[in-house]
Write a structure and sequence with these properties.
The protein is mainly alpha-helical. The chain contains 6 helices and 3 strands, in the order H-E-E-H-E-H-H-H-H.
């Protein structure tokens, strides 16, 4: 049994290849843009995340607010530290705390590239934290890290309180509509004595 085979010439190969590349480019164009973002908390611990430009814009706003209120939160935390009998004799580890940071590291062309790069950075950060943990194995270092963690929690709590207060201040209070007293007033029903007096006066 013979099978009819149609030879594919160079022109047809090029046409098929161009169509394939066009299809791939359309799929990539449909993918939402993704950013590889580096986030550092108050203890300078770094996390890498993937997010859209819109998500990063919201993160930038939150980070800017936290940075603006950071100094005040530090002052309040130090005051609380001094008032704590178990901590007052210890120096407050202000040098170990910093305002939060959020910055775009890369703008990968595809989601696949972004996820591959993210895994690489996460592995590197995990290795760095492991090395730092080995350095803090002595009792003295462990005690120091506990104090840093306590200070971090204090500053974080104060910062959250300030942010909640700031957002409440910036949110306009919308007064609830008050019912008109006259409109909603219950009509007065005269009793029998009032009705009788009115009739006598009229007569």
């Amino acid at each position: 049994m013979k099978t009819n085979r149609f030879p594919i010439g160079p022109a047809l190969r090029w046409t098929l290849l161009a169509a394939l590349l066009w299809s791939v480019s359309r799929v990539r164009a449909a993918e939402p843009p993704v950013l590889l973002v580096r986030v550092a908390d108050l203890k300078r611990e770094v996390t890498y995340v993937l997010m859209t430009p819109a998500e990063f814009k919201e993160l930038e706003k939150e980070t800017a607010l936290r940075t603006r209120l950071f100094s005040r939160a530090m002052e309040l935390a130090q005051k609380e530290w001094r008032a704590d009998a178990s901590l007052s004799k210890l120096p407050f580890p202000a040098g170990r705390l910093s305002p939060p940071v959020a910055q775009v590291m890369e703008r990968p062309a595809t989601r696949e590239q972004a996820e591959r790069r993210l895994r690489s950075l996460e592995e590197r950060e995990a290795d760095r934290r492991e090395q730092d943990a080995k350095k803090a194995e002595t009792a003295k270092e462990k005690e120091r890290e506990r104090h840093v963690q306590r200070a971090f929690e204090m500053v974080q709590d104060k910062l959250n309180e300030l942010i909640a207060r700031e957002k409440k201040r910036l949110t306009p209070d919308i007064p609830m509509p008050r019912p008109d007293a006259e409109t909603n007033a219950t009509p007065h029903s005269p009793d029998k004595q009032e009705t009788g007096a009115a009739l006598d006066q009229a007569l």
